[in-house]
Amino acid sequence: MLRFTDEELEQMALVEGALEMTAAIDPAFPTGWVRLQLNKLAQEAEHALMDEPNPHLRLEGLIRLFYREWGFCGDQQQYFSSENVFLDKVLERKKGIPVSLGAIFLYLAQHLDLPVSSVGFPTQFILKVDWYDGEQQYINPFDGEYLSKRTMGAWLKGHRGPFTELRQEHLDEADNADILTRWLTVMKSALLREEHFADALRCSDMALEFSPGDPHEIRDRGYIYQQLECSHVAAMDYEYFIEQCPEDPAAELLKLQVQALNEEPLTLH
Length: 269
Known about the structure:
- The protein has 12 helices and 6 strands.
- With 269 residues, the protein is an alpha+beta fold.
- Helix 2 (14-25) runs parallel beside helix 8.
- It comes from Photobacterium proteolyticum.
- Pfam families: TPR_9, Transglut_core2.
C-alpha cells in the first residue's frame, strides 16, 4: 500500500511518511490541504525567527511560537481519539498526542536547520536535540517542556517495572519506519474504539507490510474481520496465531473462538 522503499522512507520527513500512510488508509484524507498548512506554518516560523542566528535561541523561539502563540497542545481530555492521530484534525484543532504534535514540530525544526530528531522512547514519542558541542536535550512534544533523564527514568520504571534502568538505547534516534509502525498501532486502536472497522482493517494490513507474518498483528486482524462478520477469514487468522504462539495465554480462548466461527454459515461479502 505504501509507494516507497524503506530507504526512501528514511530520506523523507517523518510527517511526509505519515501523510502517505494516512492517505493509504483513508482515500478521502486531504493530503494537499495538510501540506499547504504545514508549508504556511514553516513560512511563519522562518519569518518570525529569521533574524535569530543563535540556534539555541531559535529553538526556544520555535517552542514559544508552536505551543504558546499558535496554541498547539496535548489533548488531555480525549487522548485516545482518532482526531489526535490524523494530521488534518490535529492542525484544525491544534491538539494531538506526542507523535502527531512531535512530527509537526520536527518538520518545522528541520526547516529552521535545528538538530532535532525522533526518539521512540518506550512510553511515548519524544524529540532529541543534538547540539553541535555534544550537548543533548530532550523535549516532550505533548507540552513542549524539556525532559530530564531522571523524569524519563521514572517513566520507564512506571512502564516496565521498578528495576528497569534508563539506557542509551532508549534515547537513540529512531527510524521513520519504527515511528510510523507505532503511530499506526495508535491509529488502529483509536479506530477500533470508535468502531471504524473498515479503516482499522486497512491499518492492520499496512502494519503487516512493515512486519510481515507478525502473529500478534494477524490475531488483531482476525478480531477486526470478526467485527466485520467475516467469520471464516477471522478463524484463519486466529488459527495462524495459535499455531505460531501456542504458549500464549490467549491461544486457548481463541481455539474456542475458532470453533464457534467455523460453525457459522459462510457469508460472501
